[in-house]
Model the fold of this input.
Amino acid sequence: MKLLNVEAVLGRETNIQEADPECEILKELDDETTSYAILSHRWGAEVSYKEMTRLMKMEERKRDEVRQREGYQKIIKSCEQAKKDGYAWLWVDTCCIDKRSSSELSEAINSMYRWYKNAQVCYAYLNDVGESTFPTEQDNNKFAESNGWPEWFVRGWTLQELIAPEEVQFFNRDWVHIGNRQHLAPTLALITGIPSNVLTIGLAGRSFSVAQIMSWAAERKTTRVEDRAYSLMGLFGVYMPMLYGEGKMAFQRLQMEIIRRSSDQSIFAW
Done:
């Protein structure tokens, strides 16, 4: 996997006018042997792999536009938090995958669950929470588009990002720490329908039916229809090639892969 060098990113940002345009901020490392932090977030105005790696080769006006984006600030704040926590490496899906390469994108999506699982800590950024405490009650006025809870909890990809990591730390829009998965498990169970013991000790060694796991994803949304299926592969331990454009066929392929690996008949409920 390609990881951001935290010191290199922050050093470049601190001395942006004098930064070396050839300085490498990404490095290919082994997720099994490297200590790293990982970001989970709701996408907005993001920064791509190409933009992040070629930032210092841009015209100043374009570079300033990139640096002012919400997505760039997320990267910087994530790096600052990682440095504070003692991590030299950070993974952010927006800029650590070269999505121009279909093979790299496919490999990343098939590896995503493992990458979140192997991270030492996951930073879950809730950009629609302004308070300095985690919301404990449903609020349909504040979160009208997401069932009364922060939008992060209704997105498809964030399901595995909540379950897979060993540790999940939550931050509000100003990067104020508002809790962790362990201590928030009862509230998170209420929001997501995921049993508290899964949130505290994970899926390892536990047996859940296909229908149970599918139910955790039932109300979640993805921008691309195919991602409804792709975002669940890691939870079921299956692997598939990415075929964006196949539409709802992706979910049928997911079902077939699950059937190949399991005799669980509850899958036919979906």
Notes: The chain has a mean pLDDT of 94.
